[in-house]
Every structure is written in C-alpha cells, then in structure tokens.
Amino acid sequence: MRVSTSTCIHERALWSSELVYTCRDSIETCANAGYRVLDMNFASYSRGTLPMTQPNWEHWVNEIKEHAENLGVEWMQGHAHFYRWTKASPEEKVWHEELIRRSIIGAGILGVKWLVIHPGTVYDETWYSREKSLQANLEAYQRYAELASRYGVGIAIENMFEGQGYRRFGVSADDLLELYERLNDPKTFGICWDTGHAHIQKINQYQALRKIGRRLTALHIADNKGEKDDHVAPYFGTIEWEPIMRALKEIEYQGDFTFEIHNFTAGLAPGLHEKVVRFSYELGEFMLTLGDNGR
C-alpha cells in the first residue's frame, strides 16, 4: 500500500461554502507534503459553474494531468460525480448522468485505475425496494462499464450509509458483493470501502473487509464519531483502526490507503493547511506500520 489522499483535502478554508483553492493548488500542496499518488475528486468540480460543467472540461482535465506529471504525481483512484436518484427530475438526471460520463472519460485521461461511483436507491409505492434498487444498479453500472472499458478505467462500487427514517442500497457488504457478482466482470468492477460510512452503520469492519477480500480495489479512509459523516482524519473520531489495518494485511489488499478527509482542513485558516496536509501524510505512513506489524 501507498499513502494517498483525495484532492478534496485542500479545497476550502474557514468553512467557506465555495472552493478557496483550485485543483492545481491541491495537487501542489499534496505533492509538497510528500504524497506521490492522489485520488481525483471529480465530484468537487462538477457543481455550479466549476470546470467539469464547462464546454472545455476535457482541456481542463488535460491541464491537470500535465501539472500532476510535472510534480511527479500519479492517479490511482478517482471519485465520480454523484447525486440522489430520488431527488432528481428526469431533466436533472440527464445532466447528472452526463457529469458521470465526463468523470469516466476524465479518469481515462488522467490514467485513474479505479473510479468510485456511488450506487443508487429506488423507492416504490410502499417504501424502499431492494429488488428494484439492485436491478436499477445493474443497468446503470453495465452502462458505465461500456464507456469505462474504452478508457481503461475500473469502476469501484462504494458502501453507503443510511439516515434516520430512510433506507439505502449498498450499505452492507452483502449488497456490494451481490451487485459485484451479478455484474460478473471482475476486470471492470471492484469494491471501495468507506470506513466512515461503515462506522455510522456500526458495521464490524474487520469482518466486512475479510468478507470482501480481494474484491476490494479502493479505500476511502476517514473517521467520525459514529453519528455523522464527518470526514476527519483517523484517531480524530472513534473508529478502532488496528483491526481494519490487520484486515487489509490479511486480505492482501493491493490498492492504496486513500484519505477522504476534507473536513479535517475545511475549517482551518489558510496558513495552517500545508502543515496539516503534511501531518496527514505522516499519519498515513504511521498507519501503514500497524498493518506491517500485524497489530
């Protein structure tokens, strides 16, 4: 494993609702902190009038690729645009799906090996329908796979979390594994495990990771206190990390150890960002020793 982080680690400051730093800024700050492999968060730049929404979006992605190469940075993971199926009108869904299409193509341009795409949820006249959700996801991921295969991109299906009063497909390891097996294309599909999502659901993460095994191709490493998706660094929440690191070693996980901890820096003053991003890299290097020691 290598220590990696999402570009979202260096985007906002002082809880601004707008991006304070550009993607180029994030790549530079992460490279200066020691990171040599990153996760491209296309979702951050697929809202409002940000670069992935613009007609020249491919030019922008190529500029990002050149900038990263000049800094000696490569891309292992990416995060596609995402949206809630149930909250989008038919017209809005067309645009959202276009942004996912652009994420896949952008991942191919950068050389991303695994692009994380969220599963969706279907509700029927009674409430949540697992059967209809599974079928809708099969159709969506098969559609994504046709494009991803042309660009040499793998698709990682991420575990979700639920809130009070609503259900979601993809929360359990069993949901992910059934979808993965039904897709029946191990060269194109894998599984992304989000530690923060699993902690909210009170999942035994050691056992879940053991069940997923070698089908695990990507990680979103983040901590919280078991109530909200805080996206803070490990040991700043209540996750027990040693069993997770042990499980990753036991299943011989081949991907990177990728932080998704944007709220760890989002509230900081700009002058603190570089120091904290550097700390996150050192924290990641320490955590890899937990797996090496088998503790």
Report on this model:
The chain is of the alpha/beta class. The protein has a single domain (3-293), classed as TIM Barrel. The protein has helices spanning 23-33, 57-70, 90-110, 130-150, 173-183, 195-200, 205-212, 241-250, 270-293; strands spanning 3-6, 37-41, 74-79, 114-117, 154-158, 189-194, 216-220, 257-259. Helix 1 (23-33) packs across helix 9 (270-293) and helix 4 (130-150) packs across helix 5. The longest helix is centred in the C-terminal third of the chain and has 24 residues, at 270-293. The model has no long low-confidence stretch (mean pLDDT 96).
Keywords:
295 residues, alpha/beta, TIM Barrel, eight-stranded parallel sheet, 9 helices, 8 strands, globular
Overall mean pLDDT score? 96
- What is the CA-based Rg, rounded? 18 Å
Task: Tell me what the CATH architecture is.
Answer: Alpha-Beta Barrel
Q: What letter string, H or E per element, gives the SSE order?
A: EHEHEHEHEHEHHEHEH
Shape: globular
The CATH first-level class comes to: Alpha Beta
CATH topology: TIM Barrel
Total E-strand runs: 8
Portion in helices: 40-55%
Structural class: alpha/beta
Proportion of residues in β-strands: 5-15%
Largest sheet: 8 strands, parallel
Q: Say which CATH homologous superfamily is assigned.
A: Divalent-metal-dependent TIM barrel enzymes
Domain unit count: 1
Query: Widest sheet: strand order?
Result: 7-6-5-4-3-2-1-8
The poorly predicted ranges are: none
Distance between the termini: 16 Å
What is the count of DSSP helices, taking H or I runs of 4+ residues?
9
